[in-house]
Amino acid sequence: MTPDPVNGVNYVDTSGGSTGIAGAQSLAETFDNFLVLLTEQLKNQDPLSPMESNEFTSQLVEFTGAEQAVLTNNKLDSLIQLQNSNQLNSVVSYIGKTVTANSLALNLDENGATIKYSLGGNADNTEIRIIDEDGNTVVTLDGETSGGTHEITWDGKNTEGEQMKEGVYGFLVVAKDANDKAVQTTQGIVGKVTGVESDNGTLLLAIGKVVVPLEQISSVQETKTADTPSSEEPDDAET
Questions:
Q1: What pLDDT, on a 0 to 100 scale, did the predictor assign at position 162?
Q2: H or E element in which residue 174 lies
Q3: Measured between alpha carbons, how far is 43 from 50 in angstroms, rounded to an integer?
Q4: Among 7, 28, 136, 156, which residue has the fewest nearby CB atoms (within 10 Å)?
């Protein structure tokens, strides 16, 4: 993968490999050698025991079949490259949009980090633990306790009120009922798509420095700006 200098996203090089070309070159060289040897064999064969025509034909058929196999592989490589290119083009429209994605990681930037979570029922206590790259809990946020979907934004400050550096953090939503039993939860993030990439056929969207598969995206909206009228409804599309 090669880095994109604009979005900082790694993109897969879909220009194709050299396997098919090398195979064709090798086949051509082998076939040339075969013709040289065959010519010499025909020139020096025993007149009383000439080369069988079916053997001659069989050898030519084998080389023809190998050549066709290489050409077929080249065409398949081209189709795969075209498919990957079309897939990337189909998700380019996500760039700049605000999406909700299932994730265990969040991206902290100058605007903080927005978390979206759902509770399968009412809870007595809900905690949202923000975890750094070393596995340490930097802060614990108080979450909503009623069943349903909720949203909260972490301002990027730790327990001591210090501003943490921008980057990727893990988070965990923990909800328990009055009997100290776990309440079913789902968790995700909300953020603006900054780039897209394809990795071995899997389409990925970058939300800052967090990369999530396309199938983990649950909703897409137009990103609100300072010029967006407050009365304007966002273009919300469930995927």
A1: 96
A2: strand 167-176
A3: 10
A4: 136
